[in-house]
Amino acid sequence: MAESKKFTLEEVAKHNKSGDLWVVIDSVVYDLSKFEDLHPGGGVVLRDPEVAGQECTDLFYQLHRHEVLEKYKRYIIGSIEGGQKFVVEKLAGEISTVPFAEPTWLQPSFSSPYYNEGHRKFQKFVRKFSEEEGFPEAYKLEDGGGMWSDKIIKRMVDLNVNEMRLGPGKHLHGITLPTGLKGEEFDYFHELILNQELCRSLCRATQDGFFGGMVIGLPPVLNFANPEVKKKVCSEVFQGKKFICLAISEAFAGSDVANLRCTATKTADGKHYIVNGTKKWITNGTFADYFVTGVRTDGGLSMLLIERSEGVETKPIKTSYSSTGTSIAGTAYVTFDNVKVPVENLLGEEHEGFKVILSNFNHERWVMTCATIRSSRQVVEECLKWVHQRKVFNKPLISQPVIRNKLAKMISLCESHQAWLEMITFQMNKMTYKEQGKHLAGQIALIKSSSTRMSHYIADEAVQIFGGRGITKTGMGARIENFYRNVKFDAILGGSEEILMDLGIRQALRNMPKAML
């Protein structure tokens, strides 16, 4: 190994000029002579007297993320004799030791009534899989767009990730999941773990591009399609051969689903529907093969499964996900122009589409809440690391009381919302789907709206803590910038905050007794 060769600080100090330039970072010696003019900030940065030939660990970590060292390992030529490494390197799959970086149940000194040993094994597996296989690809795809590699899609199929992302149910029965977990034993805490681990990259576009359209689009097929259609479509989607999305929102109707204008008219022989209209802001729509679509029929609202075919056109919508307009999230404007759809593709009963739409709202909002809360905690971890690295007025940023106050509020919000989420998840495990709709719709609506309010606050404070780096797409604050730029998605998708807060109160008032002061 290159680090086996030993040097003294005095020896390193002799290599302090252009063409012969060494530095020491955390007791490791790097020969940057050939990298000098390749440095993004220019060679002048490395030729600085405080850098060239010097021990510059503190200076390096004020300007770079740790993964930069991983990228440039080839420049390592040795280590400092008797030197001691101080930077803690977290291996893939490991639990973070940064205070409050992990939910309480994952911290070694704490216990939880909700999670058993099976949950803990499952978490370790998902953490290792996401950090070793998922995140590296996510970081590459986040801004430039593209599509997940065939390798990742195959791994998802092999691990039954697609099935697990739809939550507990009969579709998992008879399947052996990672860690030997039986599909029948998969519960909502397993799904919570899956959702929260997969979002830790803070790559918002790839989070939705990780087939978020399937999470909200396939349940109506799973629960309301006729047996033949269900078998065909679910198999294709679970096997990664086809992709699906939910197409409800229009330019004319977002939360106001009742005002959809996309129409479906039956042919004279009653064998097909002819669909005309548009849909907007459809996640995964640009690459979807199937569109689970809300349409207006002559007697009300209906749901149809529309296959990409003649008359179906999709165009990418430029959103804050990406500066290129080709985000991996695949947000689309969809046009249906005299599209012929077999009546067998009707989901549920004709004119009863509201039931189909509403059936998955609670699960969709709960999934989004899981990610919002965990992503916010990940931002807090970024902030905790930064305030110890960054020095202002010759002191670490954490020495400022105002910074500690900000962190205290951010941490309190993360802890309280995680506790609320776990309580709701426990109730989901104890209730049928119908009971969840009756008793938890309001709770889930309130926690989703509250958690997105929390994420707004945390995003704002994180940018204040990172300063200019928090509004810069690259470098130390890249993940903070991404979080801040995309924080509005969860406040709008799945039901806006205002709609959900009203829903939560209206559901509670149904059980309001005639109590008087």
Q: What labels describe this entry?
A:
alpha+beta, elongated, single chain, 19 helices, 517 residues, 4-stranded mixed sheet
Word description of this protein:
By secondary structure, the protein is of the alpha+beta class. It has 19 helices and 15 strands. It has a five-stranded mixed sheet. It has a four-stranded mixed sheet with strand order 6-9-10-13. Strand 2 (16-17) and strand 3 (20-25) form a beta hairpin. Helix 13 (361-389) packs parallel to helix 16 (441-466) and helix 14 (401-430) runs antiparallel to helix 16. It starts with 5 loop residues before the first strand and ends in an 8-residue tail after the last helix.
N/C terminus separation: 77 Å
Q: What is the strand content?
A: 5-15%
Compute the CA-based radius of gyration.
26 Å
- Number of separate helices: 19
Arithmetic mean of pLDDT: 94
What does the main sheet amount to? 5 strands, mixed
Task: Flag low-confidence runs.
Answer: none
User: Based on CA inertia axes, which overall geometry fits?
Assistant: elongated
Structural class: alpha+beta
The strand order across the widest sheet is 1-5-4-3-2
Number of E-type strands: 15
Helix proportion of residues, in percent? 40-55%
Question: SSE layout and pairings?
Answer:
Layout: E1 6-7, H1 9-13, E2 16-17, E3 20-25, E4 28-31, H2 43-46, H3 57-63, H4 67-71, E5 76-80, H5 117-141, H6 150-158, H7 161-164, H8 188-198, H9 204-209, H10 212-224, H11 227-238, E6 244-247, E7 263-266, E8 272-282, E9 290-297, E10 300-307, E11 312-316, E12 332-342, E13 346-347, H12 353-359, H13 361-389, E14 391-392, E15 395-396, H14 401-430, H15 433-439, H16 441-466, H17 478-486, H18 489-492, H19 497-509
Parallel strand pairs: 1-5, 6-9
Antiparallel strand pairs: 2-3, 3-4, 4-5, 7-8, 8-12, 9-10, 10-13, 11-12, 14-15
Helix pairs in contact: 5-8, 8-13, 10-11, 13-14, 13-16, 14-16, 16-17, 16-19
